[in-house]
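Dear colleague,

Thank you for sharing your sequence with our group. We've completed the structure prediction you requested, and as agreed, I am returning the results in plain text so they can be pasted directly into your records. Please verify that the sequence below matches your submission; if there's any discrepancy, let me know and we will rerun it promptly.
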Amino acid sequence: MSFFINKLSRMGALCGLLVLLAAASVFAQTQQGIDVTVKDANETAIAGAKVDLTIGGLSVGTAVTNDEGIAHFDVQRAGDYRISVDATGFASMTREVAYSPGTGLRETFRLDINGISETVTVTATRTQVTTEETAVPVSVVGRKEIEEQGINTIGDIFRTLPGTSTVNEGAFQVRPRIRGLDSNRVLILVDGERLNNSRTSTGQSGVETGLIDTGEIESVEVVRGSGSVLYGTDALAGTINIITSDTGRRVVTRVSDSAAASILSTVRTKTRFAVRLG
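Please find the predicted C-alpha coordinates below.
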Protein backbone atom coordinates (compact mmCIF):
# COMPACT_ATOMS: atom_id res chain seq x y z
CA MET A 1 0.00 0.00 0.00
CA SER A 2 2.79 2.40 0.90
CA PHE A 3 4.39 1.58 -2.46
CA PHE A 4 1.35 2.85 -4.35
CA ILE A 5 1.14 5.95 -2.13
CA ASN A 6 4.77 6.81 -2.81
CA LYS A 7 4.26 6.25 -6.52
CA LEU A 8 1.21 8.50 -6.56
CA SER A 9 3.13 11.16 -4.64
CA ARG A 10 5.93 11.03 -7.17
CA MET A 11 3.48 11.26 -10.03
CA GLY A 12 1.78 14.23 -8.39
CA ALA A 13 5.09 15.98 -7.90
CA LEU A 14 6.02 15.32 -11.53
CA CYS A 15 2.70 16.69 -12.76
CA GLY A 16 3.14 19.79 -10.62
CA LEU A 17 6.63 20.30 -12.02
CA LEU A 18 5.31 20.01 -15.59
CA VAL A 19 2.57 22.54 -14.83
CA LEU A 20 5.14 24.98 -13.44
CA LEU A 21 7.37 24.54 -16.47
CA ALA A 22 4.44 25.13 -18.83
CA ALA A 23 3.40 28.24 -16.92
CA ALA A 24 6.97 29.55 -16.99
CA SER A 25 7.14 28.94 -20.74
CA VAL A 26 3.87 30.78 -21.34
CA PHE A 27 5.02 33.65 -19.12
CA ALA A 28 8.33 33.88 -21.01
CA GLN A 29 6.53 33.96 -24.34
CA THR A 30 4.23 36.73 -23.19
CA GLN A 31 7.21 38.72 -21.98
CA GLN A 32 9.00 38.55 -25.35
CA GLY A 33 8.33 40.99 -28.16
CA ILE A 34 7.51 44.68 -28.16
CA ASP A 35 4.45 46.12 -26.47
CA VAL A 36 3.44 49.67 -27.38
CA THR A 37 1.04 51.57 -25.15
CA VAL A 38 -0.58 54.71 -26.53
CA LYS A 39 -2.10 57.33 -24.23
CA ASP A 40 -3.09 60.96 -24.36
CA ALA A 41 -1.79 63.75 -22.17
CA ASN A 42 -4.33 62.82 -19.46
CA GLU A 43 -3.03 59.21 -19.29
CA THR A 44 -6.17 57.90 -21.01
CA ALA A 45 -5.66 54.93 -23.30
CA ILE A 46 -6.15 55.63 -27.02
CA ALA A 47 -7.86 52.75 -28.82
CA GLY A 48 -7.62 52.33 -32.60
CA ALA A 49 -4.24 54.01 -32.95
CA LYS A 50 -2.11 52.78 -35.84
CA VAL A 51 1.36 51.55 -34.85
CA ASP A 52 4.03 50.81 -37.47
CA LEU A 53 7.22 48.90 -36.67
CA THR A 54 10.19 49.09 -39.05
CA ILE A 55 13.88 48.15 -39.05
CA GLY A 56 16.40 49.47 -41.50
CA GLY A 57 13.64 51.03 -43.58
CA LEU A 58 11.82 47.67 -43.92
CA SER A 59 8.36 47.15 -42.46
CA VAL A 60 8.10 44.53 -39.70
CA GLY A 61 4.37 44.90 -39.17
CA THR A 62 1.45 47.18 -38.44
CA ALA A 63 -0.90 46.86 -35.48
CA VAL A 64 -3.86 48.71 -34.03
CA THR A 65 -4.15 49.39 -30.31
CA ASN A 66 -6.90 47.59 -28.38
CA ASP A 67 -9.32 49.09 -25.86
CA GLU A 68 -6.46 49.35 -23.37
CA GLY A 69 -4.33 51.26 -25.87
CA ILE A 70 -1.84 48.40 -26.31
CA ALA A 71 -0.39 46.94 -29.52
CA HIS A 72 1.87 43.86 -29.43
CA PHE A 73 4.58 42.81 -31.89
CA ASP A 74 6.10 39.32 -31.76
CA VAL A 75 9.73 40.14 -32.56
CA GLN A 76 12.55 37.57 -32.58
CA ARG A 77 15.35 39.54 -34.19
CA ALA A 78 17.67 41.88 -32.32
CA GLY A 79 18.27 45.35 -33.69
CA ASP A 80 17.33 49.00 -33.69
CA TYR A 81 13.64 49.41 -34.47
CA ARG A 82 11.57 52.46 -35.31
CA ILE A 83 8.07 52.77 -33.85
CA SER A 84 5.64 55.20 -35.50
CA VAL A 85 2.30 55.97 -33.88
CA ASP A 86 -0.57 57.73 -35.64
CA ALA A 87 -4.01 58.38 -34.18
CA THR A 88 -6.88 60.46 -35.51
CA GLY A 89 -6.96 63.88 -33.88
CA PHE A 90 -3.51 63.52 -32.35
CA ALA A 91 -0.02 64.49 -33.47
CA SER A 92 2.05 61.63 -34.83
CA MET A 93 5.11 60.42 -32.91
CA THR A 94 8.15 58.36 -33.88
CA ARG A 95 10.77 56.77 -31.63
CA GLU A 96 13.92 54.66 -32.09
CA VAL A 97 14.31 51.67 -29.73
CA ALA A 98 16.86 48.87 -29.29
CA TYR A 99 15.53 45.34 -28.82
CA SER A 100 17.24 42.10 -27.72
CA PRO A 101 15.58 38.66 -28.02
CA GLY A 102 14.54 36.93 -24.81
CA THR A 103 13.49 40.16 -23.13
CA GLY A 104 10.28 42.10 -23.34
CA LEU A 105 10.27 45.74 -24.37
CA ARG A 106 7.57 48.12 -23.17
CA GLU A 107 7.20 51.53 -24.77
CA THR A 108 4.62 54.15 -23.84
CA PHE A 109 3.65 56.96 -26.20
CA ARG A 110 1.81 60.04 -24.94
CA LEU A 111 0.28 61.91 -27.86
CA ASP A 112 -0.63 65.58 -27.93
CA ILE A 113 -3.81 66.83 -29.56
CA ASN A 114 -3.11 67.84 -33.13
CA GLY A 115 -3.81 71.41 -34.13
CA ILE A 116 -6.30 72.29 -36.85
CA SER A 117 -4.58 73.22 -40.12
CA GLU A 118 -5.95 74.82 -43.25
CA THR A 119 -4.57 74.68 -46.78
CA VAL A 120 -4.71 77.93 -48.72
CA THR A 121 -4.94 78.13 -52.50
CA VAL A 122 -4.79 81.09 -54.89
CA THR A 123 -5.34 79.21 -58.15
CA ALA A 124 -9.01 78.25 -57.85
CA THR A 125 -10.38 81.80 -57.45
CA ARG A 126 -7.31 84.02 -58.03
CA THR A 127 -7.65 85.11 -54.42
CA GLN A 128 -6.47 83.58 -51.16
CA VAL A 129 -9.07 81.08 -49.94
CA THR A 130 -8.92 77.78 -48.11
CA THR A 131 -9.42 74.56 -50.07
CA GLU A 132 -12.66 73.95 -48.11
CA GLU A 133 -14.17 77.19 -49.46
CA THR A 134 -13.64 76.51 -53.17
CA ALA A 135 -16.44 75.31 -55.45
CA VAL A 136 -14.12 72.95 -57.37
CA PRO A 137 -11.88 70.23 -55.94
CA VAL A 138 -8.33 71.41 -55.29
CA SER A 139 -5.22 69.47 -54.26
CA VAL A 140 -2.22 71.25 -52.77
CA VAL A 141 1.11 69.45 -52.45
CA GLY A 142 3.52 71.34 -50.20
CA ARG A 143 7.28 71.23 -49.86
CA LYS A 144 7.10 68.95 -46.84
CA GLU A 145 5.10 66.31 -48.74
CA ILE A 146 7.51 66.49 -51.68
CA GLU A 147 10.47 65.77 -49.40
CA GLU A 148 8.72 63.05 -47.38
CA GLN A 149 7.55 61.17 -50.49
CA GLY A 150 10.96 61.38 -52.15
CA ILE A 151 9.56 62.90 -55.34
CA ASN A 152 12.22 63.16 -58.07
CA THR A 153 10.21 64.51 -61.00
CA ILE A 154 7.10 66.61 -61.21
CA GLY A 155 5.36 63.71 -62.93
CA ASP A 156 5.52 61.80 -59.62
CA ILE A 157 3.26 64.47 -58.11
CA PHE A 158 0.57 64.17 -60.79
CA ARG A 159 0.48 60.38 -60.52
CA THR A 160 -0.40 60.47 -56.82
CA LEU A 161 -3.30 62.94 -56.97
CA PRO A 162 -6.93 61.93 -57.59
CA GLY A 163 -8.22 62.53 -61.10
CA THR A 164 -4.77 63.26 -62.56
CA SER A 165 -2.27 61.21 -64.55
CA THR A 166 0.60 61.73 -66.97
CA VAL A 167 1.20 61.13 -70.68
CA ASN A 168 4.20 61.26 -73.04
CA GLU A 169 6.78 60.70 -70.33
CA GLY A 170 10.49 60.81 -71.04
CA ALA A 171 13.77 61.91 -69.52
CA PHE A 172 12.73 65.58 -69.29
CA GLN A 173 9.26 65.24 -70.75
CA VAL A 174 5.98 64.82 -68.95
CA ARG A 175 2.54 66.23 -69.58
CA PRO A 176 -0.26 66.16 -67.02
CA ARG A 177 -3.75 64.88 -67.77
CA ILE A 178 -6.78 65.90 -65.72
CA ARG A 179 -9.99 63.88 -65.94
CA GLY A 180 -8.97 62.37 -69.26
CA LEU A 181 -8.08 65.65 -70.97
CA ASP A 182 -4.60 67.00 -71.67
CA SER A 183 -2.87 69.05 -74.36
CA ASN A 184 -4.32 72.58 -74.62
CA ARG A 185 -7.20 71.72 -72.27
CA VAL A 186 -4.99 71.86 -69.15
CA LEU A 187 -3.55 75.23 -68.19
CA ILE A 188 -0.02 75.21 -66.76
CA LEU A 189 1.08 78.14 -64.60
CA VAL A 190 4.44 78.78 -62.98
CA ASP A 191 4.17 81.36 -60.21
CA GLY A 192 0.94 82.51 -61.83
CA GLU A 193 2.47 83.04 -65.28
CA ARG A 194 0.92 80.91 -68.02
CA LEU A 195 3.11 78.56 -70.07
CA ASN A 196 0.42 77.66 -72.60
CA ASN A 197 0.43 79.41 -75.96
CA SER A 198 -1.74 79.40 -79.06
CA ARG A 199 0.05 76.33 -80.40
CA THR A 200 -1.74 73.06 -79.75
CA SER A 201 0.29 70.60 -77.66
CA THR A 202 0.91 67.19 -79.18
CA GLY A 203 2.83 64.06 -78.23
CA GLN A 204 5.97 65.61 -79.70
CA SER A 205 5.63 69.25 -78.66
CA GLY A 206 3.95 71.39 -76.07
CA VAL A 207 4.34 72.65 -72.51
CA GLU A 208 7.13 70.72 -70.78
CA THR A 209 6.52 70.67 -67.03
CA GLY A 210 9.28 68.07 -66.64
CA LEU A 211 11.92 70.77 -67.10
CA ILE A 212 11.00 72.32 -63.75
CA ASP A 213 13.40 71.24 -61.01
CA THR A 214 11.50 69.74 -58.06
CA GLY A 215 14.12 71.15 -55.70
CA GLU A 216 12.89 74.64 -56.56
CA ILE A 217 9.20 73.86 -56.03
CA GLU A 218 7.53 75.23 -52.91
CA SER A 219 4.05 73.86 -53.67
CA VAL A 220 1.87 72.61 -56.51
CA GLU A 221 -1.83 73.51 -56.73
CA VAL A 222 -4.02 71.35 -58.96
CA VAL A 223 -7.58 72.50 -59.68
CA ARG A 224 -9.72 69.72 -61.14
CA GLY A 225 -12.57 71.40 -62.97
CA SER A 226 -13.27 74.08 -65.49
CA GLY A 227 -11.54 77.41 -64.92
CA SER A 228 -12.39 78.94 -68.29
CA VAL A 229 -14.11 81.95 -66.70
CA LEU A 230 -10.88 82.88 -64.91
CA TYR A 231 -8.20 81.70 -67.33
CA GLY A 232 -9.80 81.04 -70.74
CA THR A 233 -10.48 77.86 -72.71
CA ASP A 234 -7.03 76.44 -71.87
CA ALA A 235 -8.36 75.65 -68.39
CA LEU A 236 -11.30 73.55 -69.56
CA ALA A 237 -10.13 70.38 -67.76
CA GLY A 238 -8.25 72.07 -64.95
CA THR A 239 -5.44 74.34 -63.90
CA ILE A 240 -2.01 73.52 -62.46
CA ASN A 241 -0.06 76.24 -60.70
CA ILE A 242 3.57 75.40 -59.84
CA ILE A 243 4.83 77.77 -57.15
CA THR A 244 8.59 78.00 -56.78
CA SER A 245 10.59 78.92 -53.70
CA ASP A 246 11.48 82.54 -53.03
CA THR A 247 15.04 83.48 -53.90
CA GLY A 248 17.27 84.80 -51.15
CA ARG A 249 17.80 88.49 -50.72
CA ARG A 250 20.79 89.95 -52.52
CA VAL A 251 23.42 91.57 -50.36
CA VAL A 252 24.48 94.93 -51.77
CA THR A 253 27.77 96.35 -50.52
CA ARG A 254 28.05 100.12 -50.73
CA VAL A 255 31.48 101.59 -51.45
CA SER A 256 32.34 105.10 -50.35
CA ASP A 257 33.41 107.71 -52.92
CA SER A 258 37.00 107.78 -51.63
CA ALA A 259 37.31 103.99 -51.82
CA ALA A 260 35.88 103.97 -55.34
CA ALA A 261 38.32 106.68 -56.43
CA SER A 262 41.24 104.69 -54.96
CA ILE A 263 40.18 101.51 -56.81
CA LEU A 264 39.78 103.44 -60.10
CA SER A 265 43.22 105.04 -59.69
CA THR A 266 44.84 101.63 -59.11
CA VAL A 267 43.18 100.20 -62.21
CA ARG A 268 44.38 103.12 -64.35
CA THR A 269 47.94 102.79 -63.07
CA LYS A 270 48.06 99.08 -63.86
CA THR A 271 46.59 99.72 -67.32
CA ARG A 272 49.26 102.33 -68.16
CA PHE A 273 52.05 100.05 -66.91
CA ALA A 274 50.76 97.22 -69.07
CA VAL A 275 50.60 99.49 -72.13
CA ARG A 276 54.21 100.61 -71.61
CA LEU A 277 55.41 97.03 -71.33
CA GLY A 278 53.58 96.18 -74.52
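Summary note from our side: The domain at 29-111 is CATH 2.60.40.10 (Immunoglobulin-like).

Kind regards,
the structure core
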